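hiii so um. not sure if this is the right channel but i have a protein structure encoded as tokens and i wanna go backwards to a sequence. like what aa goes where. can anyone help
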């Protein structure tokens, strides 16, 4: 009479359990992809409408759902935007875009330098009062810019219509410091101890060891800072009245206010405004995803 050994019984049960879980795991994965696909479709609809509308005649832009139909596509709207902003009276499109790029570049590069060093000092160096300073930084994250815009306006009123006043107030950023601080705290202290034994000081340790290890968080901060600064509108409205130093979002508001509004040209202007953001994200995408994933795991 044959007998079933415990090992055989356990192996059979394990195989059965695995075979049962496999279809469930497959169905869960299909459901996840279906939900993510629906969400991606919903989020991409406005961008798709923006792109298709910029390629259509103005009388067909506001036709409801038919605006998604790729019919009568043309680049005339882009040509009209370039022609409309190509004189001393209206300003030049390349100058508006150059101002926005220059200001965003200064804010991003200066912010990466200042905020990363501030976060490194608060997360890795030991000094009296660092926890109190970091708590103050966290509290500053709760203060919206709109609440301090008017005091800043009166403080820098004599510096209006300059390029540097559009960038200087935004280089130091509490949220960027918090992002760097969170990432730096996850780095093992043994790495810095080894560098210290080799004779490296805080500056050399930061630039030669910490910075190369922190590419994901640098990319994340760079993208978020560029996105915020590129779309900045309230501060330029308060501080800029000279077309020579007018950034692109402010010029789009002026362009949109012309009567009667030409929606095809307005959407074409919108595409030109969004395009640099997409390029920056595509360039830093790999490190940005790594930074988000590592923050989620370590957080």
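sure thing!! here u go:
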């Amino acid at each position: 009479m044959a007998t079933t050994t415990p090992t055989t019984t356990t192996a059979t049960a394990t195989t059965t359990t695995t075979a049962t879980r496999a279809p469930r795991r497959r169905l869960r994965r299909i459901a996840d992809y279906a939900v993510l696909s629906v969400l991606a479709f919903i989020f991409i609809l406005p961008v798709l409408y923006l792109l298709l509308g910029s390629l259509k005649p103005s009388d067909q832009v506001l036709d409801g759902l038919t605006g998604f139909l790729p019919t009568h596509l043309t680049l005339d709207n882009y040509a009209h935007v370039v022609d409309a902003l190509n004189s001393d009276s209206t300003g030049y499109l390349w100058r508006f875009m150059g101002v926005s790029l220059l200001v965003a570049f200064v804010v991003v590069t200066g912010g990466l330098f200042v905020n990363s060093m501030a976060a490194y000092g608060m997360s890795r160096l030991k000094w009296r009062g660092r926890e109190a300073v970091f708590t103050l930084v966290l509290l500053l994250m709760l203060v919206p810019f709109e609440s301090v815009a008017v005091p800043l306006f009166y403080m820098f009123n004599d510096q209006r219509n300059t390029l540097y006043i559009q960038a200087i107030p935004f280089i130091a950023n509490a949220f960027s410091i918090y992002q760097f601080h969170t990432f730096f705290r996850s780095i093992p202290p043994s790495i810095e101890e080894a560098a210290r034994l080799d004779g490296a000081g805080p500056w050399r340790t930061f630039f030669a060891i910490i910075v190369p290890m922190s590419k994901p968080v640098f990319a994340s901060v760079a993208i978020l800072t560029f996105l915020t600064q590129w779309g900045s509108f309230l501060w330029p409205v308060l501080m800029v009245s000279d077309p020579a130093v007018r950034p692109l979002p402010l010029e789009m508001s002026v362009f949109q206010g012309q009567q009667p509004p030409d929606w095809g040209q307005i959407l074409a202007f919108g595409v030109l405004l969004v395009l640099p953001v997409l390029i920056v994200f595509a360039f830093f995408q790999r490190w940005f995803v790594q930074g988000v994933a590592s923050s989620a795991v370590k957080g």
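oh and The first strand starts at residue 86 and ends at 87.
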